[in-house]
Every structure is written in C-alpha cells, then in structure tokens.
Amino acid sequence: MSNELISYDPAGVLLPEHGLAPDALGQLASKLEAARTEVFDDARLFASGGEAPAEKQPLDAGFHGLPERLLDEYREQGSASEVARIQATADRLAGVVDRAVVLGIGGSYMGARALLEACCHPYFNELPRAARGNRPRISFEGNNVDNDAVQGLLDLVGRGAAAKSLEERWGIVVISKSGGTLETAAAFRILLRHLQESCGNDDAQVANLVVPVTGSSGKLFDLARGLGCQELYPVPDGVGGRFSVLSAVGLLPAAIMGLDIVKLLEGAAAMNEHFRQQPVGENVVLDYTGICHLMEVERGCDVRLLSTWGKRLESVGLWYDQLLSESLGKQERGAMPLTVVNTRDLHSRGQQHQEGKRDKLITNITIGSCEREPLAIGVSEQDHDQLNSLAEKTLPEVLRAATQGTNQAYREDNRPTAELHLPQLNEHTLGQLFQMLMLATVVEGRLIGINPYGQPGVEAYKKNMNAILRG
Ligand code: PA5
Fold first, then answer.
1. Which residue of 12, 27, 247, 299 is surrounded by the most CB atoms within 10 Å?
2. Which helix (H) or strand (E) element contains residue 323?
3. Residue 234 falls within a domain, yes or no?
4. Are residues 110 and 251 in the same domain?
5. What is the 3-state secondary structure (H, E, C) of 182-221?
6. What is the spatial distance between Cα 126 and Cα 121, in angstroms, rounded to a whole number?
7. Mutate to test the pocket of ligand 1, among 63, 110, 178, 320 (most ligand atoms within 8 A of CB)
8. What's the confidence (pLDDT) of residue 104?
9. So what's the pLDDT on residue 1?
C-alpha cells in the first residue's frame, strides 16, 4: 500500500473569469494561518484538560490528536492498547458470526458506511464468506425508524430462530455517544430481543455477541453493563459524533470488515503532520478551506459540490455532507454541501450544474488508479451499438474522458472547478481524507467565527418527538 499524500489543485478556480485574483489565496494566508494556530491551540487546551472559555464551548477538539494518541499507545502497549483490543474484538466476532448489524445514526455510523463502500469489495455482502476474507456481512440500522426496513433486516437474521451454524449466527455493534438517541435505542431493543431468542436466552452468549461503543456513562452504557457485555469501547470525551470516525466508532466496524485500521490512523497522522508543516499554497487543508471560503464570500458560491467519480466515494461524500452541515450550518450561515456521484449524476443533476445558478463551487475527487485489472469494451460481431471503434478503450479510460470532458464543459461556461486527488483508494488515503476534511471544517469555523462543535439545532426535533411520544 503506497503512503503517497492526497493533493489539492485549485487551478480551475483561480481563473480571472471567476473573479478571484491569482494570488487570492496568498492574500488570505495570514488569516488562514491564524485559524490554523487557533485549531492547534484548541487541541492543546483540550489535551491539557484546561477549561475552554464560554465562547468556545463545546470544544470537542479531541479528534485532532486522536490518531497519534492511538498509534503511540499501540506501539507502546501492544496487545493492551485500544487499537489491538479493537482488532481482537473484531477478529473474535468475525470468527463467530456471519453478519454484524451496526446500529447508529449520524456520526455514529456514516464513517463506517463510507469505509465499507470505499475500501471493501463493491458486493461485499453478496460474496460467499471465504471471498469476504472470512469476515461477516455488515448491515446498518438504527439510523432511521422505518418499520419495513427493520422487518426486512429481521427476515435476514432469522427473526430469532436458533442459529444452527456460523452462517446463521449474527451479532450487534451498537454505537451511540450519548447513549440516548431514540432511533438507535429502539432498533437495539428490537434486535436484541431477537438475538436473545436466537441464543435461547443464554445471557453469556448474548453478552459475547453484543459490542457497544458509547460514552463513559449514559443509558447505553448502563444497558451494556446490565447485559454483561465484556467488551465495551469508548467514544472518547471531547470527540464529537461527526468527528469520531477514527475512534472505536469507525475503527471497530472497519476492523470487523477486515480493513487495516493502523493504516487508517497512519493516514490521518500523516495529514496532521502535513497540515502542521506546510505553508498556504502547499497545504491541502488550508488551500481547500481558503478556496471554499473565498468563493463563498467573494463570488456567492455557497453550494459546495463534492463531485465523486466512480461509485465508491458516495458515502464518503455523505459523511462529509453531515460534517459540514452540522458543524457550520449555524446562525443562519454555513455553505450547503452536496455529494455528486459521476458519471451517474451527470444524467440527473448535470444540467443544473452546467447551466443553473452560479452559486456552486465544484470539487472533483479523483482517484489515481483503480485496484483491479482495467476492463476493455471489446469487439463484438453485433456492432449495432457501434462500439467496435472503441473496442480497446477501458472503463478507466472512459471515466477519465468523462471527467476531462465535464471539466472542459464547465471551464467553457466559467463554472469553478477544483480537484482533490487521491493516488489510490485504500485505508491510508481514506484516513488522510477524513482527517483533512475534519481539519478543514474546524479551520473554516475558526476563520468565520462559528463554533464547529456541537449541534444545538438538532435538539429541537428530539425534544418535540419525545414530547409527542410521551405526552
Ligand atoms: O455529529 C454528531 O454529534 C451527531 O451527528 C451524532 O453523531 C448523532 O446525532 C448520533 O448521536 P449519538 O452517537 O449520541 O447517538
């Protein structure tokens, strides 16, 4: 696995026709650097256990140093470290179940789903167990209250029928930092009942098949203790839900899928180092933040399209949609993120992006090379589709032509387009990308004076829903 860094190229935005001066980023450099310093001060304050001033609360800056902290502990403490224990739990579970149901909502599951889609086989759950590397299938629930979806999952797991073989056995990873989120709690209660039935109400067996990830206190914590769960992982204090992908919240599901969680953390640590050292103009985090900010305040582009190419980054985009929306969508401000999956969405949203309102900044995410042998279109005796003239072209070549053609069309119509480039799609680049986008979000928050942590607006619906249900 190569450890090459991801890169960012704003050349398609820094054009006179977009109204940004060629040195616009340079002019913003001192403000970006001040925001970076503040982000480091936040991390230091958090690490020292100091009290954050009122205007900075909540200060969930714990995500920043988390990769290094976990890696150091792993190197120093070996099998006693959290990373090694997560890996051991994942391996144990993978050895005894053929489906892991991951329960969680928002930041408590979106990172895991992003990892499954980006780094695992595209048809992971459909593969026979051996082709999955003897890892269990992964199903997500607790991220809604959709009766028929939960019923459908119960059909899959046997509705409480006794599991007679490994293929029929399943387990639950339930993730909630607060431990009180109703969607997740309701799904857990329903699924747990069926799991208990399927284990003949053997408490010890159930306790081995349920792994909670939660805060150090709360309803889920108490329930886990009540169930006798031996393995329980923390969402560390000071790491908010949408910033928790590189804690047990994302690492445990990733390890169950068979992904290399050390590489994920190493990628994130490499991004931290890059962010710390590189100047504006060569710093992926600062440059991305600066360009997004400039296009918003100077050109009114407050819709940010994250344009992914190929099928595997959609859930990474949705994870980022949540990160940006919940972090900066406050005080009637904050840009609107939108994930696009091309070429698919060229046939749905493409028209609007090409000719609609000039309120959009496009950031392509491109991937250097695909993992598998490139497939050629090939020759056919039935050339009614007239593809024989393209017979030698491969799917990656077609995708590249679509990307270049779209960029050209956008350039000709003055649609600002930047590029975020991943040399490959693997745990190391994903770790970098997660950390880069989390850092960019908090840098932008500090730049514009919005606290990126906390999500006070989400409380209103929860309060109302509870009042309606219990009233
Ligand atoms: O970013 C956040 O904090 C939220 O999106 C949470 O992750 C989400 O609301 C789930 O919360 P919890 O993990 O407490 O169930």
1. 247
2. helix 314-328
3. yes
4. yes
5. HHHHHHHHHHHHHHHHHCCCCHHHHHHHEEEEECCCCHHH
6. 10
7. 178
8. 98
9. 65
Q: What is the mean pLDDT of each run of 10 residues along the chain (471 residues)?
A: 88 86 93 98 92 90 97 97 98 97 98 98 98 98 98 94 93 96 97 96 96 96 96 94 98 98 98 98 98 96 96 97 97 96 95 94 94 96 96 97 96 94 96 98 97 89 90 83
Q: Which domain holds residue 111?
A: 63-263
- The residues, ordered by sequence, that sit 6+ positions from 197 with a Cβ below 8 Å of its Cβ are 160, 161
For residues 104 and 168, membership in a common domain is answered with yes
Chain position carrying tokens 């999955």? 132
Looking at the fold, whether 96 and 164 belong to one and the same domain comes out as yes
User: Is 382 part of a structural domain of the chain?
Assistant: yes
Is residue 50 assigned to a domain? no
Instruction: Give the CATH number of the domain where residue 311 resides.
Output: 3.40.50.10490
7-9 vs 360-367, strand pairing mode? unpaired
Taking the CA of residue 137 as centre, how many other CA atoms within 13 Å lie in the half-sphere pointing to its CB?
A: 18
Structural domain includes residue 327: yes
C-alpha 281 to ligand 1 mean position (Å): 34
User: Residue 155 burial by CB count (10 A; 0-12/13-18/19+): exposed, middle or buried?
Assistant: exposed
